[in-house]
Amino acid sequence: DGGITQSPKYLFRKEGQNVTLSCEQNLNHDAMYWYRQDPGQGLRLIYYSQIVNDFQKGDIAEGYSVSREKKESFPLTVTSAQKNPTAFYLCASSTLTGLSGNTIYFGEGSWLTVV
Amino acid sequence: DAKTTQPPSMDCAEGRAANLPCNHSTISGNEYVYWYRQIHSQGPQYIIHGLKNNETNEMASLIITEDRKSSTLILPHATLRDTAVYYCIVRVAQGGSEKLVFGKGTKLTVNP
Fold first, then answer.
1. For B61-97, b where at least 16 C-beta lie within 10 A, e where not — what string?
2. A42 contacts B99? CB cut-off 8 A
3. Does B46 touch chain A (CB under 8 A)?
4. I want to staple A30 with a disulfide (CB 3.0 to 4.6 A). Which of A63, A96, B25, B107 is the partner?
5. Residues 8-37, chain A: which have Cβ within 8 Å of B?
6. A110-114 vs A10-13, strand pairing mode
7. What does the alpha-carbon distance between residue B25 and residue B4 come to, in Å, rounded to a whole number?
8. Which of A16-20, B30-34, B68-72 comes out lowest in average pLDDT?
9. What is the 3-state secondary structure (H, E, C) of B18-73?
């Protein structure tokens, strides 16, 4: 089935460690996104990428890094510089258009907890 | 900041229509209105989107006012499984790219 796969679903990290969240899509979408969601809050954009080997910072990029070596993959690394990383992380993708009605689809999310 | 305003919560009786309002008074002429919903601990699910005309699909109907400053999502026969947070989003284009700006949404509770 086509879709967006995030892994792992649940991840625990010790303070000072870097962790990487995986996001893979088989929808042939050009654009991919990472969002963070804190309990009871809306989604905030961390990074997004329109094409391979290119990405831009979103609203809360500090303490995070990404790569886009393949069209299908957009992994997110939560570094030790992120002071409050415990959150729900969502990956999304869409076709690349101008101002249009194309839809952005989301993965099922990954829970990261710092212990 | 989100470009939309939604009530924080609403209740609806099972089997009745749920009408969720959204204000987007600063929407640009070529920006679309999207609706998503999110059930706890899951990724947001796409529901519907529109530009000017009213839209309907198997999940819902979207009514956009003529001046495009507000819209209403209609779930015609709400079920308990429709209990979720519903997000109204205006598609923002920035620097040639696109991103969705999410607010806090409306928590819809469908009661038996």
1. bbbbeeebebbbbbbeebeeebbbbbbbbbbeeeeee
2. no
3. yes
4. A96
5. 31, 33, 35
6. parallel
7. 8
8. B30-34
9. EEEEEECCCCCCCCCEEEEEECCCCCCEEEEEECCCCEECCCCEEEECCCCCEEEE
Token couple for B84: 């979720």
What residues does B52 pair with on adjacent strands?
Answer: none
Q: Measured between beta carbons, which residues in chain A are less than 8 angstroms from residue B42? A: 108-109
Q: Tell me the residue type at B13.
A: A
Match 């070596």 to its residue by tokens.
Answer: A69
Tell whether A99 is within 8 A of chain B (Cβ). Answer: yes
Distant-in-sequence, close-in-space partners of A28: CB < 8 Å, separation ≥ 6:
A71
Band of pLDDT at residue B96, cut at 50, 70 and 90:
very low
Contact B97/A31, CB-based, under 8 Å? yes
Tell me whether A106 touches chain B (CB under 8 Å): yes
Q: Would you say residue B32 has pLDDT above 80?
A: yes
B33 vs B21: CA distance, rounded Å: 12
B9-13 and B106-111 strand pairing? parallel
CB contact under 8 A, A105 and B46: yes
Using a 10 angstrom Cβ sphere, with 0-12 exposed, 13-18 middle and 19 or more buried, the burial of residue A85 is buried
Residues B26-30, mean pLDDT to the nearest whole number: 83
